[in-house]
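Review the following:
>
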Amino acid sequence: MTTYALNNLWTYLNGLSLKRADREWLAGKLLEPTAKEQKTKQQQEYVKESLFRALDEMEAAKREGRTLTTLDDFIKELKAEEAT
């Protein structure tokens, strides 16, 4: 938004007879998208870091001649742990 549009919006909001609770609600609505965007960015960063760690682990295993656990074996281990 332009400065002019923001000033018009501010003038309009000041012209309303908003109670304190109404102002707090409005403030929350204005900040809500920012909080959601931040959470999404954090989740994306976590996934990215996790994938890079997994790739590094795979490359290290190849260099060292280790075999990695297959997905099927991993799921079997998880199920076995849940059963106990």
